[in-house]
Amino acid sequence: MGRGTRGACRATGVARNANIAKLQAGYLFPEIAKRRNAHQEANPDARVISLGIGDTTEPIPAVITDAMAGAAKGLNTLEGYSGYGAEQGKPDLRAGLCEAFYKGVMEPDEIFVSDGSKCDISRLQMMLGPGRSVAVQDPSYPAYVDSSVITGQTGEFDEASGQFDDIVYMTCRPENNFFPDLANTPRTDIIFFCNPNNPTGACATREQLQELVDFALKNGSIVVYDAAYAIFIEDDVPLTIFDIPGAKDCCIETCSFSKYAGFTGVRLGWTVVPKQLKFADGSPVIADFNRIMTTCFNGASNVAQAGGLACVKPGGMEGMMSLVNYYKDNCKLIRQTFVDMGFEVHGGTNAPYVWVGFDGRASWDVFAEILEKCDLVTTPGSGFGPGGEGFVRVSAFGHREDVEEACQRLQKIYGGK
Ligand code: MLT
Fold first, then answer.
1. Which domain does 347 fall in, by range?
2. 148-195 pLDDT, tens per residue?
3. pTM, two decimal places
4. Is the CB of 54 under 6 A from ligand 1?
């Protein structure tokens, strides 16, 4: 309430960030949570199941929580206490990540530990600055487009196309096997590429990744490669973009323990910036990312980093794989349910998301219908961009009994399709 006023709100003299004003609606997942809550309020007896946001549900393996508990208890002792750490992450964790995921490919000091990939995407945008041209897969994880809008990389939203001006939307649909037609894609400074893809669950082959890298090298672009779901890959394709020749000259990779180890609440991720990656003026990108991290971040929580270190040790790696396999079994149930009912089904083998076609019906209508008839939350495909229209994403992150019940409810309503 303004000084001297009662009951009435008074505006400040501060102009609103015009880029934020361009955003059309709230961020996708809070928007979905709002609709879920409204449904629950209207149907107080309903047991709503959420296979909407990809939020992990299963307990973190004990070998990892024990390490975090030990670190937390240690804070109570003189020997175990630590304050600020290196903004780039603890050296032993950087070395452990390198050994576990980038052995012989990257160096530990090219890995920046953080509080998660989503936060790193925004910090990368801050580093890149306004005015860069951006391409995204369409559909794609909404943080790429929204952070581009906020940073000032885009024009206005175009109602007719459902797209922001000045963003290149690289259509990824069944017709092109979910891989963009790069031969007909204009050059941009930055290409956001999520593989395995959220939301479609599609996974690019080695040849396709080489095509992406060659395209970026030819155009002098930087690929921000989001590998948050790489641990789910079962096909014989690279787990990191840095396995692809040329990638160190054009790629940054971001990844996270959120889906690997159930760290959506613990918060721990990392971003890999090769030393040889350069801006147009020849200056190293890693120096600017380091500048951003030291300015905008004080290092990940020391307790979370102790957990991360346990993750990349032998017992932790096995623990993570057993979690991943649990969600993979959920995927099989969801996939099979839709396949049996005769739906068009994609994803769900190299990624924890099943992408279901609903005969071209509007995604938000299908989302509302499934919520209304099955008390089940999904995610409307068009929430990930116009290329997702006609599809609904079903997440495999859930307790087994909830996934089983969700499948039964779906079967009851759509089984006669
Ligand atoms: C999703 O549901 O797409 C993800 O869980 C959201 C995220 O990782 O931020």
1. 26-55+316-414
2. 999 999 999 999 999 999 999 999 999 999 999 999 999 999 999 999
3. 0.96
4. yes
